[in-house]
Amino acid sequence: xxxxxxxxxxxxxxxxxxxxxxxxxxxxxxxxxxxxxxxxxxxxxxxxxxxxxxxxxxxxxxxxxxxxxxxxxxxxxxxxxxxxxxxxxxxxxxxxxxxxxxxxxxxxxxxxxxxxxxxxxxxxxxxxxxxxxxxxxxxxxxxxxxxxxxxxxxxxxxxxxxxxxxxxxxxxxxxxxxxxxxxxxxxxxxxxxxxxxxxxxxxxxxxxxxxxxxxxxxxxxxxxxxxxxxxxxxxxxxxxxxxxxxxxxxxxxxxxxxxxxxxxxxxx
Length: 268
Known about the structure:
The chain is α+β, with helices and mostly antiparallel strands and 268 residues long. It folds into four domains: 52-102, no CATH class; 103-140, no CATH class; 144-177, no CATH class; 185-265. The protein is built from four helices and 15 strands. The strands form five sheets. A three-stranded antiparallel beta sheet has the order 1-2-3, with no helix packed on it. Strands 4-5-6 form a three-stranded antiparallel beta sheet, with no helix packed on it. Strands 7-8-9 form a three-stranded antiparallel beta sheet, with no helix packed on it. Helix 2 packs antiparallel against helix 3 (214-240) and helix 2 packs parallel to helix 4 (245-265).
């Protein structure tokens, strides 16, 4: 009877084992703290992966690279105080805080004078770190001169003027000079004066012919002749100078007008 009961129990255990193996497992991968696990029946397989720890830093505690779990506290920075040239700095991670203090110089000595083309230099001793410190002196401003004619304008080409620095000679600005009048101002003045003389002479002759007062007119005539000689000398000097084509034409037209006036009175 006892043997029969034992056999029945063994069959029951086997049946239960076969029933467990019948689960169609849905496995969830192992984590740092849990093994591979079936989400349906809870059966496990293998071991947890275990944490993959990254060492603590100045700002973060010991941390698992896989799941992010932390342990303990951050190490904290080990600060080296700021200097003249370097900011407050952690000796462990190199992180900085704030700015460098900068040098403190109470007295500067000029070693190179600044000009309008080059910066100057001055130096002094830092009262904090005793380092010999140099700093730049900004360039001074250019001193602008007057406009200078570089290329004279002609009737066919524009000219050029420049302004330079009085100190270094550097060209600061340029401007064009408009085309020149082909007739020189002094030439035009002389020729126009010549024409006016004969206009005045024509009026004089007209007055002389209508009044018949030869005695009073003689003095005026002698004065005209003196002016005439002066003007002729000026005109002759113009004719001897190198005239442009435009000047030669201007003089010829003036002479033609004068000749027309003189024909009315039979010359001078």
